[in-house]
Amino acid sequence: MGENSPMPLEIRLIIIAALVLLVVGAGFYWRITTGRAKRVADGTQIDLARLGATKNGKAVTEFGKKITFLQFSTEMCSQCRQTAHLLGEFESQNPDVLHIEFDLTHRLDVAKKFNILQTPTTLVLDSHGRVTSRIGGAAKTQTIQDEIGHFQI
Fold first, then answer.
1. Confidence of residue 153 (pLDDT cuts 50, 70, 90)
2. How high does pLDDT run on average in the chain?
3. Pair 79, 86: CB distance under 8 Å
4. pLDDT-based confidence at 125, cuts 50/70/90?
5. What is the distance between the alpha carbons of residues 124 and 53, in angstroms, rounded to a whole number?
6. Do residues 115 and 62 lie in contact, with contact meaning Cβ atoms separated by under 8 Å?
7. How far apart are alpha carbons 140 and 145 in whole angstroms?
8. How far apart are CA 111 and CA 114, in angstroms?
9. How far is 101 from 80, CA to CA, in rounded Å?
10. What is the DSSP string of the chain?
């Protein structure tokens, strides 16, 4: 084999198969981890007034009696509406739950402050506004039920 000899067909097929397996594995990992809650140890305190959170056009300054879902969205996010609808359903079923949707489209400072790398991202807050967990991607129904269950509503 000389310097300019093509790579044998078997080697090329092995490389292609390995790349396909790598991509499929990465996609599978992303699918099973997105939309799941991850516990947050630092307990960052959220200040709704400083954040400028609104709901139905009015400023929000108080948290839910037991739990608040602070959902970060953008205008072009296709999964944000689905997540907002799901969280809104849980809010309507329980008076101790509050859902706030915050549009990050023109607020990159907020995205940077809370390290929001994808939308939707939902922060789960206790009744004092401390972050207890974080949901990256479209929230799953079971994940929301589990998070509400942690607060024993």
1. very low
2. 87
3. no
4. very high
5. 15
6. no
7. 9
8. 5
9. 9
10. --TTPPPPHHHHHHHHHHHHHHHHHHHHHHHHHTT-EEE-SS-PBP-HHHHT-EETTEE--S--SSEEEEEEE-TT-HHHHHHHHHHHHHHHH-TTEEEEEEE-TT-HHHHHHTT--SSSEEEEEETTSBEEEEEESSPPHHHHHHHHHHTT-
Structure tokens at 32: 């099973």
d(CA 136, CA 121): 5
Alpha-carbon distance of 96 to 113, in angstroms, equals 27
**DSSP character string of 112-134:** HHTT--SSSEEEEEETTSBEEEE
Lowest-pLDDT range of 32-41, 93-102, 119-128: 32-41
Distances (CA, A) of 151 to 4, 46, 62, 98: 66, 18, 17, 13
> For residue 41, what are the CA distances in angstroms to 84, 101, 103, 142?
25, 23, 25, 22
| Bridge partners, 58 (sequence order) | 55
Residue with tokens 């997105």: 34
